[in-house]
Structures are given as structure tokens and as C-alpha cells.
Amino acid sequence: MAGPDAAELDRARGLLAGADTICVLTGAGVSAESGVPTFRGESGLWKSHSPEDLATPHAFRRDPRLVWEWYEWRRETIRACRPNAGHGALARLALGSRRVRIVTQNVDGLHEEAARKVAGAGDPSPALPLELHGSIFRVRCTSCSYRVSHRHPLRTETPEDLPRCPLCSALLRPDVVWFGESLDPEILSEAFRVAREADLCLVAGTSALVQPAASVPLATLDAGGVVVEVNPTETPLTRLARISLRGPSGEILPGLLDGLETPGT
Ligand code: BJW
Ligand code: ZN
Predict the structure, then answer these.
(1) pLDDT class for 243, splitting at 50, 70, 90?
(2) Nearest ligand for residue 166 CA
(3) Of the given ranges (44-53, 137-146, 221-230), which has the lowest mean pLDDT?
(4) How far apart are CA 89 and CA 97, in angstroms?
(5) Which of 120, 145, 176 is at the close of a domain?
(6) C-beta of residue 25 within 8 angstroms of C-beta of residue 202
(7) Could you tell me the CATH number of the domain that includes residue 243?
């Protein structure tokens, strides 16, 4: 696929260079080049699995083993994936001088891994994302408030194998947000605050179909800021974006973000 032309990339770099405060919204597409499957599209997860059967509280109540088996397969896939050049460019941007916050719908932890890698012995926290849909490497109790990081493989062959809460013995579940569930109100309001205060919202690798995440860039627009989109295909956001750069984020983001001048210089 032909990428954006040089003039368009330059125009987008100009907008980014002039922005003091940047909100970055990412979706599954930014991890596609790392080998993490996206949800929608020809090779997306929803092509072979129905979201209603796997990513709703009802599905988990009906067949927790099936849901855990699917999540365990995805956890195994993601454990083998490393951040790509797009994650790296975003981490460098956020660790630079600009006021940048990454807001992600992804549950794969690859922004955090890139932040730690880029920060080295330094502080990765400016590049740690707000995770709107949770983390596939955390589990939480279906009954009490127990919640813990969990990266190791889990057994899912029989209902008896499924992980249970050490405090109350109820079933544990992946700490992700399923359809019909509310997002963490503090994370959500922080994401919208960041978006409202941003001069520019950079949106990469999302179909912009799932609410309320898809409305984050609208908060930037409502407050007078601009949207720049990076995606190989058109989305509902394209017509609202000042510039839409067509192509894979692992190829476009380094050229777009690396070496930007500090605002005001
Ligand atoms: C590349 C690339 C490359 C490829 N480089 N790019 C208002 C209106 C209508 C409906 C609703 C509404 N408000 C709420 C709803 C209901 C629902 C919803 O939005 N439904 C719509 C689908 C119609 N939302 C919810 O239920 C949310 N909860 C909520 O709002 O609570 C309050 C409430 C409850 C009930 C009723 C009303 C209000 C929760 C949503 C939770 C979403 N969960 C999932 C699963 C997370 C856990 C897991 O991973 O298993 O989150 S679904 C899935 O979609 C996942 C993703 O984070 C999310 C978004 O997907 P994303 O990231 O955009 O990926 P794709 O695959 O869709 O797109 C990939 C893109 O990348 C494409 O554009 C490609 O072109 C591109 N790409 N290669 C760059 N190399
Ligand atoms: Zn419990």
C-alpha cells in the first residue's frame, strides 16, 4: 500500500510541532505489526468468534471455561509479541519535553513495555498509558474486590481448573472491560480531561466504533483542538480529522513523531 505523500506527512508534523499538549488515542491496529490480532476486519478476531459469546458478562456466566480458554489463547499469543516501531515512537514522544498522554483501548501491555524500554533506567511514567479497557495480564474476582497482575499460563481444560479468588473462592475473570460493562470512571474521566485539554488528538489504529472510547477525540474537537488520524483504512473519524495518514502505524509514527521540534522554538 502506498503511504502518505511527503507533503501530507510534513503538514501533519507541522501540526504536531505546534501543539503544546497532545492526547494520543490508540487501538488494536497499533499492535497489529507486533502480531497481536485486531478485532474487526478480514483477519480480525470477530471474523471467527462472536463478541456475544466471548466478550460479555453474560457469556462468562454461561460458559466461563470457554471464555477463559479464549483469553488464555490470546494471552499466550500476546506474551510472544514485542512492541513495534509505532509503540517506540509514541513512548519517545511521551518521554520528551511535550505534554503528552497516551490513552489506549488495548489490553496487551505493549505501550507499557515500550515505555520501560525507552526510559531505560529513567522514569517510564509519562509514557504509561491510561488503559480504558483494562489489562489482559490482570485478573479480578467476580465477587469481591480482589485484583492482581497475572502473566503466567492458566489451565482451562475443565471447570475445576479455572482460577479462583484466594480471599472468597469465587471465580476470577480477566480484568478487561466487556460489552455492556462500564469503564473505570476515574480512568474514563481522566481520559476525557486529557482530550479536552489537548491542542491535538493523535488517533492511531482504531476503527473508532466502540463507545465511549471513540468519543475521546470528539472532546478535543469540541474544545477547539484538531485530530490527526493514522490508519490504513477510513473510519468514522476520518471526516473529522484535519489530516488522515493512510498506512500502518509502525511505519508512519516514527517518521511523523521522531525529532519534532519543541513547541515554541
Ligand atoms: C491498523 C493497522 C496497522 C490495522 N496500523 N492501524 C453508544 C452508541 C452505541 C453503542 C454504545 C454506546 N455506548 C455504549 C455502547 C455499547 C458498546 C459499544 O460501543 N458498541 C458498539 C460496538 C456499537 N460499548 C460498551 O458496551 C462499553 N461500555 C459502556 O459503554 O458502558 C456503559 C454502557 C453500558 C451498556 C449500554 C450503554 C452504556 C464497553 C466497551 C468494551 C469493549 N471491549 C472490547 C474487548 C476488550 C477486552 C478484550 O480485549 O478482550 O475492547 S471490544 C474490542 O473493541 C476491544 C477494543 O479495545 C475495542 C475497540 O477496537 P479497536 O481497538 O478499534 O480495534 P478494531 O479491530 O475495531 O480496529 C482496528 C483498526 O486498526 C482498524 O481501523 C484497522 O484499519 C486498523 N489497523 N492494521 C494502524 N498496522
Ligand atoms: Zn473474591
Answers:
(1) very high
(2) 2
(3) 44-53
(4) 14
(5) 176
(6) yes
(7) 3.40.50.1220
Q: Indicate if 41 and 128 belong to the same structural domain.
A: no
Task: Name the E strands within the chain.
Answer: 21-26, 99-104, 130-131, 134-141, 147-149, 172-176, 200-204, 226-230, 243-245
State how many domains the chain has.
Answer: 2
> 152 lies in which domain range?
37-80+135-176
Q: What is the distance in A from the centroid of ligand 2 to the CA of 33?
A: 37
Out of 39, 48, 107, mutate this one to test ligand 1's pocket (max ligand atoms within 8 Å of CB): namely: 39
Residues 242, 167 within the same domain: no
Domain boundary among 176, 194, 228: 176
Structure-model confidence comparison of residues 194 and 265, the more confident one: 194
Q: Phi and psi at residue 257, in whole multiples of 5°?
A: -105, -30
Query: Residue 42 above 90 pLDDT?
Result: no
Residue 134 to residue 236: CA distance in whole angstroms: 24
The answer on 247 and 190 residing in a single domain is yes
Is residue 36's pLDDT more than 90? yes
> Which ligand 1 atom sits nearest the alpha carbon of residue 54?
50
pTM for the whole thing? 0.97
Question: How high does pLDDT run on average in the chain?
Answer: 95
Q: Is 133 among the catalytic positions? A: yes
Are residues 3 and 59 located together in one domain of the fold? no
Residues 7 and 128 in one domain: yes
Predicted confidence (pLDDT) at residue 265 exceeds the cutoff of 60:
no
- Are 255 and 148 found together in one domain? no
What percent of the chain shows pLDDT beyond 90? 89
CA dihedral of residues 102, 107, 111, 117 (deg, nearest 10):
150
